[in-house]
């Protein structure tokens, strides 16, 4: 179903309804800073590619944000190549596989100014709590999700977040990949 794919036209709606919290964090960070650092560009770039964004739309997307703060010329020289590269259009034509939850949780720990990583693992409790409140998660579910994250059940916390935001019963989902999250959400919402 073509409607289940990510496109620029439906992106802002999908960010709210169908993005896992890690990718929403990257998206909002990019909109705020008009920039993402290396690991953020990789984590988010490979996600939007696998979610169905075309190369042309991906270039348009990154260019429109980055050029709010830098010259078009600099963007074309330093960043456009990497976007094309990640779509296999330049260089080795390597296949870049989008990162799984396990990879995001266990590698490349984010530092200050980074937006990549898994917020269930990498955000401190207060920041995660405020984020969930901003996303209109009911208080009892927030408590449950924070407890799961504290017990290091990051993917179960994410699955609970999915279930709450899709009005599904407790325990029917198991999230292990951000693109699985996105695909299941789109399928559920269009079905
Ligand atoms: Fe993203 Fe996976 Fe963490 Fe969920 S558990 S926020 S999909 S990395």
Could you list some keywords that capture this structure?
single chain; 191 residues; mainly alpha; 11 helices; 61% helix; binds iron/sulfur cluster
Overview of this protein structure:
The radius of gyration is 17 Å and the shape is globular. Helix 4 (55-66) runs antiparallel to helix 5, helix 8 (125-134) runs antiparallel to helix 9 and helix 9 (139-150) runs antiparallel to helix 10. 61% of the residues lie in helices and 0% in strands. The chain has helices spanning 11-17, 21-33, 38-50, 55-66, 72-86, 101-106, 119-122, 125-134, 139-150, 154-165, 178-190. The mean pLDDT is 94. The chain starts with 10 loop residues before the first helix and ends with a helix. It is built from eleven helices and no strands. The chain is mainly alpha-helical and 191 residues long. The structure holds iron/sulfur cluster (SF4). Iron/sulfur cluster (SF4) binds at residues 20-22, 101, 104, 118-120, 154-155, 158, 175, 178, 181.
| Total helical elements | 11
**Which class of secondary structure composition applies to the elements?**
mainly alpha
Shape label: globular
Helix content: 55-70%
**Total number of strands:** 0
Provide the low-confidence segments as ranges. none
List ligands, each type once: iron/sulfur cluster
């Amino acid at each position: 179903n073509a409607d289940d794919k990510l496109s620029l036209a439906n992106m802002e709606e999908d960010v709210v309804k169908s993005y896992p919290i890690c990718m929403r964090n990257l998206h909002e960070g990019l909109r705020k800073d008009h920039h993402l650092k290396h690991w953020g560009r990789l984590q988010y770039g490979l996600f939007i590619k696998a979610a169905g964004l075309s190369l042309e739309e991906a270039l348009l997307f990154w260019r429109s944000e980055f050029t709010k703060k830098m010259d078009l010329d600099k963007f074309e020289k330093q960043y456009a190549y990497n976007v094309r590269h990640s779509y296999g259009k330049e260089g080795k034509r390597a296949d870049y596989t989008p990162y799984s939850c396990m990879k995001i949780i266990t590698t490349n720990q984010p530092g200050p100014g980074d937006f990549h990583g898994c917020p269930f693992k990498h955000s401190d409790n207060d920041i995660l709590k405020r984020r969930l409140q901003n996303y209109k998660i009911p208080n009892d579910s927030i408590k449950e999700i924070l407890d799961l994250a504290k017990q290091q059940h990051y993917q179960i916390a994410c699955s609970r977040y999915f279930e709450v935001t899709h009005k599904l019963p407790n325990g029917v989902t198991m999230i292990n990949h951000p693109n699985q999250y996105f695909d299941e959400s789109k399928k559920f919402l269009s079905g």
